Backbone:
């Protein structure tokens, strides 16, 4: 069964009749799962041994998480505030909302020089 993939829509929110309210979930065979696990472990080891991960990488990194990202960010914000800088924070964990927010804020000329859509 290698090479075949069964993708199933999984309902996540709101109206179940709209496609965008479903998340696609793939069910793979056991050999594929084992191979994926071996490749992931080898790739992770290679990245760690050769220091290829950025310093501020939190996702998909052993010992790092959204929580450690939030702690590090809070420390940076506090330091900036104590040093007299103005600190405005918008923390979103949703790429779609982020892109919509940036698009709306870019409409206001005062914000354009401070925004990035990265």
Residues:
């Amino acid at each position: 069964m290698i090479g075949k993939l069964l993708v199933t829509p999984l309902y996540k929110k709101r109206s179940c009749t709209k496609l965008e309210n479903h998340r696609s979930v793939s069910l793979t065979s056991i050999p594929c799962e084992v191979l994926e696990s071996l490749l992931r472990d080898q790739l992770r080891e290679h990245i760690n041994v050769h220091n290829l991960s950025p310093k501020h990488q939190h996702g998909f990194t052993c010992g790092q998480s959204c929580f450690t990202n939030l702690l590090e960010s809070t420390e940076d914000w506090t330091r900036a505030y104590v040093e007299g800088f103005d600190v405005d924070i918008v923390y979103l964990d949703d790429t779609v909302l982020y892109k919509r927010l940036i698009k709306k804020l870019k409409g206001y000329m005062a914000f354009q020089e401070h925004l990035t859509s990265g």
